[in-house]
Amino acid sequence: MSGIRKIPASCHLHLHVFQYEGLHHMSESVFVGLRDKVGTSKQVAMRRETKDIIEMVVRQVTPYDGVITMLSGSRREGFRLEGSDVDVMLWPNNHRVIMDMSQSEYYNKANTTLILSDSSESPPGFTLLQLLTSTTRRYVQSACVRMNDKVYISSSAFRLFLAPPGLNVTEHGPCSNCIIKEGHEGDIALCFVCDFWPLSASSWINRCHSWPDSEVVDDIVRNGCHFVAIGHPLGPHANEEWRISFSQAEYKCVYAMNHCQFLTYGLLKLFLKEVLNKQLEETNKLLCSYHMKTTIFWAIQQNTLPHCCPQNLLAGFWACFKLLLKWVYKGICPNFFIPQNNMFLTKVHGSAQNRLFLQLYELYKKGLACLLQSPSIRSYIIDVLYNPRVFVCTDENFMKSEVDCDVELGYEIVDRITCYSGLNIDLHSCVKYLYGIEKWVDLRLTHYQVFMLQRLAAYFLRNTAVVLHNMYTNTRANKRMYIADKMSRHMLKLAAKFGNVSDMLFIAIYYYKTLRYREASSLIKITKAKLAQPYLMYNGCEDRERYIEAVGGQSLSTKMRQAVAKDIILDTRIFYISELIPEQQSALQNVVHVLYIPVFVMLHFLEFLCYRHIDTTLSQAALDELQVLVHHDQGLYVPDLLRDISWEILGICQQITGNHQAALYSYQQSLTQYPAHQIHTATQMRIQDL
């Protein structure tokens, strides 16, 4: 085919030979490619550190009768590969699994539901969970079954809570798989936590001579494990059994890898997705990403990986591939923590095992040439084959620009904060969150963690300010109203110092809410001028040279405050603007906790609302700007996923002015967009009102 370079015939033989004289050079090239695809060590550290700090803060302030949330899987490990699911584990904080009755003395039985792990009849890695004390959780009560005069929690019945019939949710192992937003799937596992390390995994501790180091091992053991709702298909109680999950231990082991090992792990994941799963249809579901993770864990711990560096990355990949091939040949894939748990037992056996082995062996015979089947890796191999003397720079400082890192950091922050939008929003909880953040201020933190704390503080300060004002809106105590108003304004101004350019609009929203129209319009003017700067970074659009000229080399908080804009995030449980209450209520009814409003849409919306009370000509001008933006933007300032709320806001403004025909068109357009915010109930209500 034209446009695709063929590999020189002279190079085919060399690719079959493992001791290829240019192997080190080729490894460097693949290393560079993987770092483009997977991320630099700096990017991976940023992803992990921002996630870790927010999770630690939130966990610290979660009430004992609340629910703990933990991001797991590849995103927690630091990957951002296209098409990857978002894996989340949830568990009731006041439920604890114990391994034997003696451990019950560590808990207050008056407020803790105790569950006993009974693995006496279960295959390795699985167990029954016996309910020892009462529970108020309805989904736990509904999953209880009686066996031998004891009450057990059935895993199959438990899974129905997160995947009830009739909803667009499907079972995926112990998880419920759902669409969290267009093009992105999420796996949610409701589980139980155990503060103790399982006896069946004690051999793992003894194996850890060189990797991971003793500090990591101690931390892993100290934090115990989890139990997820899936039984062993061949176990005597498949519908009642639970699987021991080491998700927390696994991401800590991945953290313990050096960056070259992490990229090798990334190469294995790409190889699975782009090569192994593109072979025969009958074998493309036999191996999964967890098998790749298990392979590299064993390879590192058994020192079968050579000293991992850019020059021998491919040698490390090949060592892992040979180990995987050996396991498929034997039909045994030992779990990293409980080796007696053979993860091939139910799928990779018999004729399926034979077909999979033959497929892998064909790839093995090709040598490293098998990687040419990977679209992500192919070009980096071919480039070196065509030009063996080409210089490959593996220095990370020349890999990713400052702008690229700042863009990704901005996305990570939005992702992290909105993950916790389901937290309680009463005043007591909001103040508790702020105190929780304060406790971390004096600790030794990385600059990413400090920055994340600032953003988290800004988020909670904004919410606290509005909640406080809403509490005293209808009170007759003028003094209390005055104090609440003063405190709310102070918190919003403080939040703006920690936030980005867009966050100034929250002060304008508050001024509008409290009838300070001139103060609001003055602040909108300032914000509008900042949003018009040529160096502004928004939605992946930026003039890189001007951005660097303006804020290059400055602190992350300075960059955010002066040159970065983000969409406005409104918690649907907190009423900010009366004009948007129906939309918030509609979203909340459909369990959508936040509205994302494009910053330029919100800017013109506020302009229109404020100027209606000051200057109708300027109000109409703001509406005209909003109309042009929503009608003609090509995804630059109104992202496709946010077009439902954008058309809705335009319709609201048009309805306020009495232009019902234009409003009807806008509402109808809102209904045709992807329902990211689930506001259709409000839209239909507004259409009826017209």
From TrEMBL:
| Known cofactor(s) | Mg(2+)
Domain Mab-21-like HhH/H2TH-like residues, every copy? 268-357
Which top-level group of life is the source organism from? Answer: Eukaryota
- Name the UniProt record assigns to this protein: Uncharacterized protein C3orf59
Q: Which organism is it from?
A: Magallana gigas
Q: Which UniProt keywords apply?
A: ATP-binding, Magnesium, Metal-binding, Nucleotide-binding, Nucleotidyltransferase, Transferase
Q: Known InterPro entries for this protein?
A: Mab-21-like_nuc_Trfase (IPR046903), Mab-21_HhH/H2TH-like (IPR046906), MAB21L/cGLR (IPR024810)
Q: Which family does it belong to?
A: Belongs to the mab-21 family.
Q: What is the lineage of its organism?
A: Eukaryota, Metazoa, Spiralia, Lophotrochozoa, Mollusca
- Give every Mab-21-like nucleotidyltransferase domain span: 134-251
Pfam families in the record: Mab-21, Mab-21_C
Any GO molecular function? ATP binding
